[in-house]
Amino acid sequence: MRHHINIIALAVRVAMAAASCMAVFYLAMGVFFHLEDGHLLVKDFFSDYFTSITSSVPYRNNEWFGAAFCLIYAGLLIYCVTGLKRFHRSLKRIKKGGMFEPGQDESFRKAAATVVIFAKSKYLLFVTMGSLLYFDLTIFFREIPSFLAVYLIGKFIYLISGMAEKGTFIQEENQLTI
Length: 178
Description:
6 helices, elongated
């Protein structure tokens, strides 16, 4: 079991490092939009994310929209890292033998809530930006796989939380009967 926990902990650490690097990148891009020719830079940067439904749609984005998007997304990534860090700490306690400790279920529940809120917020951010500013209606469908992946990971952590809560209850009942 220890080997499996090590693999999950490693994957969580890699996800935290990747999300942290992405947050720094998006923060830097948000600031960089104002230092250089922001209008063209924003247009080039977001052309990878969003494609307009037709070429006749006027391009209405500017550096303020781009900077706001980057700063909000960086904030969401930082928020996700806090939840992943909480999950990683809980995994370390399990690895040390601290199974079904009081408060462990709450720690898992908070980590799961953070991941689920991140998934929903990210989806809303991309869909809002893509549909309102770029009239990119395909963004609704293109963001679903990444949304579902992160959302289901959060729900899986909720499942672990429920098992930890039930395990803690059974352990307390066991200690009272002896």
